[in-house]
Each structure stands twice: as C-alpha cells, then as structure tokens.
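Known limitations

Files may contain more than one protein. Parsers should not assume a single record per file. Below, a two-record file is shown to illustrate correct handling: read the sequence, read the token line, then continue until end of file.
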Amino acid sequence: MAMMTSDSDFQVAELPMTEGVEVDPADVVAADAAALAFAARQGGSVRESAGDEVGRALVVVVDDKVAHGDIENPLGPLVGELLEEAGFHVDATILVPGDEVEIRNALNTAVIGGVDLVVSVGGVGVGARDVAPEATEPLLDRRLRGIEEAVRSSGLAAGATDGGLSRGLAGISGQTLVVNIADSRAAVRDGMATVAPLAKHVISNIRDF
C-alpha cells in the first residue's frame, strides 16, 4: 500500500519515518557541482532565479523496506530539496514497494493531480522487483528518449554505475513529465542535475502547446 508525505495539495497522512531525516549538506554541494558541470556542458544556467517557480512536482520512492517502514527514507528528502532548489514546489513524497500496480497508481496520482513533473526513484535495475519502467511505460503518451539517454550518459560520466545502467524511462503523460532515476545518492545527485534543466524546457513547451 502506498504511503505519502504531503502539503495541502494532497489529503494524506504524514509519514513518521521521514520525520527528522535531514539532507546531508555534502549531497547538496555535490548536486550543485554536478549541476554546474552540466550547465557548463550545455552553455547555460541550471538554476532559476529566486522566486521564479517552475511548477509543481511529486516524488515517488520505490523501495520495499522504505515503503514497509523498515528503514528511513533518506532519498525522498534529498530529491525534494534538489527540486525546490531548481524552482519546483514539491507537493508530496509517495513511498511504494517494488510492485508494478502500486508504482503505476502512484504515478497516476501525480498525473491526475496535475503536477508538472513526477520523479520516481528506484526500481530501474535488473532485479525481480525492479519494475518501475514496466509500470511507467503504459502511462506515457510520448517517450523522451533524449532525457533517458542524458541521465544514463551523465551517470556513467559521474561514476554512478546504477545511473549509467538504469532502465529508467522518461516521457509525457497528459501534461505531466515523468522521469525514472536510480536510487543511489550518486545517481540521484547527478540525475537531478541532468533532469532539472531539461524538465524546465519540456514543461515550458507543454504549457505552450
């Protein structure tokens, strides 16, 4: 059963397991370094100016132990903070096990809720419970293979092996951008540095459509 932390946009219960989980400043510094490196390669800036909100986002953490409350959820807060630094308002973090139906329902929550971006973390490897891509694909109206390959390429370049070997998908469902990333800290830091500027471009185009 999916579990969620939220703001007022979603009527859900708070998750005790995420309370007191602090983002390691070193992770944010590393993410900023990755973002600057990505911006240098692209010849542009990754961050929005203060006060410029890009849109609404939702985070889906795919992990059996986290979803069942066996361990804390360190990556959800990290992804949330990186999204907020990129200019997004994070509506909620949903915790789900590695179950295809549960993952698809969580992603649907984001699409139906009208968020601009949903990032799922985990479930993109080759294990029996790594079914995030299978859960995601039926929801996508259009695949964005450029984002998928950018995340994998940057992951390999940064030494995040799971990010480089990820089977994660990216695409548009309705007017929501959906992206799967791997669940190591290195993969999250580098993946978010790569996804954020590309997401802004995609979201801008969706709105103009």
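...continuing to the second record:
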Amino acid sequence: MFDTRELGRRPGALKRVSRSVVAPKGLGIEVIGVREGATIELDLRLESVMEGVLVTGTARAPLMGECVRCLEPLERELEVDFQEMYSYPDADDRSREADTGDDAEEEDMLFLEADLFDLEPVLRDAVVLALPLQPVCREDCPGLCADCGARLADDPDHHHESADIRWAALQGLAETMRDGEKDNAPRERGDDSQEK
C-alpha cells in the first residue's frame, strides 16, 4: 500500500517515490515470470488531479523461466511502464450524478482507501502483459531433437537417418519380405548355373 496523504487533494501537486517491494506469488505465466519474493524496484510519480491521484511508474524486476525450444533455464531483466488513475471515494458519487451510463468503466475504476492505494493489481497486469509468450534463450536457438531429445545447440551436426513416414509401412513390409527370402533362399542356385 502506498500513502498519498502528503500529496493532498490540491490538483497539480506532485510527489516522486522510489521503493523496493517483494514480488507477490504468481507474477508471471507458465514458462516465465518474477519469482515470488524477488525484489521489484519501483519509481513512481504521484500526481493529484481533480478526480484522484494519477500514478505513473516504472517497475524493474528479474525474470526466471525456461526456453520454450530447448527447455534450458533463462534469466532476464524486465522493465515495464504503467499508468493508473486512483479515484477519490467521493468521485464515485460525482460520477453517478453525471451518470455516464458506462457501467463497465465504473467497475474497472480503482479507488483510494483512506488515502492509500494498492499497486499490486496494476503491477500484476503490467508485468504479465509485458512477458514474452515464447521466451527463448537466444533468437537462433535450434531447440531439441524431435527423435531423441538431444539439445541441438550442443551438437549442431546431430541428425538421425530417417525415412519418410509415409513409406514406413512399406519399409517394414520390405524388411519382412527380405527376412523371408533369406529363410527360403534356394541353396542350389550355384549348381543350376553350372548345369547350363
């Protein structure tokens, strides 16, 4: 929670805040995110406006995850900007009098509670939206071998002899026939050629 009492309600009043906070649980997506308990550095600008307090800020946090191609662990530094309006509690009454008719917009409004505001939902949205959906350890990561799972970056010449899957059934049939021919092969073939 951040305190806005020093700012007052005079429009145009400005306050800058720098703070380190502990990352909450679940700040990320399945393959990458900010580890719970990691330090997030915040630089905030609080500005008093007619309706409330406009919060503009930058967050810097360490990311941990894994490459989606080769599954190797990776670490990155994330820097994300955000801006959010926290309305005064009585601003809700004024907006009802004005009756804008947009109920969805009213539901999305954030309010100051006893001159305090909770930055976590705004920070969570900003961080999660800034995360790469397909994080890779490097742009040209070749990934893993589809046949054996070997990491291709460790062995660039890695390959397997493979036949076209469409011919696999015929290849199996050909091998069966070859095995059958070996079992039934005529042993006197050399004798036939001598007789001629």
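Parsers that stop after the first record will miss the second one. For reference, the second record is described as follows. Helices lie at 91-98, 103-107, 120-130, 168-184, 189-195.
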